[in-house]
């Protein structure tokens, strides 16, 4: 079954046209074009070719417009994946990594990533963690050293 936008109200049409003339950052022009083309009776495959988007995306924007109106076409906040480890856990990892293992009652004087991982899990700092994540956390806390190269002129 073909998918089209709902019938546009006169005010909606005017608003869409005005936004096409003066685009906004959070309302990309191609989304407005999708709605206008659909309202003009074009089918999803035709619209897809014209705006250079996959038909799935064209359908998504038509559905969002039909459900939420113009606000459905706006880009929302995308917070991303929440952090796996709290700031407190990250600080503990860095503190332990910078502590001599002998001071913690261990029989070695340097951490390896695998030993640090085992210590963090055994002491309930974290439930699980990869050595790569440990490396990234520790590395992100190290001060950045910039080397200054002086040019020697003859």
Topology:
Blueprint: H1 10-21, H2 29-39, H3 44-51, H4 55-68, H5 87-97, H6 113-122, H7 131-141
Helix pairs in contact: 1-2, 2-3, 2-4, 3-4, 5-7, 6-7
Concise overview:
By secondary structure, the chain is mostly helical.
Describe the 3D structure:
The protein has 154 residues and is mainly α. The protein has 2 domains: 10-73; 87-141. The protein is built from 7 helices and no strands. The radius of gyration is 28 Å and the shape is rod-shaped. The termini are far apart.
List descriptors.
single chain; 7 helices; mainly alpha
Output mean pLDDT.
Answer: 88
SSE topology string: HHHHHHH
- Rough shape? rod-shaped
Count the E strands. Answer: 0
Q: Give the oligomeric state.
A: single chain
Cα separation of the termini:
79 Å
Low-confidence runs of at least 5 consecutive residues: none
Helix content: 40-55%
Most strands sheet: none
- Tell me the count of domains: 2
Content-based structural category: mainly alpha
Tally the helices.
7
CA gyration radius, whole angstroms: 28 Å
């Amino acid at each position: 079954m073909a998918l089209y936008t709902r019938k546009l109200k006169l005010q909606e049409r005017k608003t869409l046209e005005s936004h096409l003339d003066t685009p906004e950052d959070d309302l990309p022009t191609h989304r407005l074009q999708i709605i206008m083309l659909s309202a003009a009776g074009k089918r999803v495959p035709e619209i897809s070719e014209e705006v250079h988007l996959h038909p799935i995306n064209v359908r998504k924007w038509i559905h969002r417009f039909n459900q939420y109106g113009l606000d459905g076409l706006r880009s929302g906040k995308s917070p991303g994946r929440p952090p796996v480890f709290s700031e407190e856990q990250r600080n503990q990892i860095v503190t332990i990594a910078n502590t001599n293992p002998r001071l913690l009652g261990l029989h070695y004087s340097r951490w390896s990533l695998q030993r640090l991982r085992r210590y963090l899990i055994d002491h309930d700092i974290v439930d699980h963690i990869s050595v790569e994540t440990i490396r990234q956390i520790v590395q992100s806390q190290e001060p950045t050293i910039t080397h200054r190269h002086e040019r020697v002129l003859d």
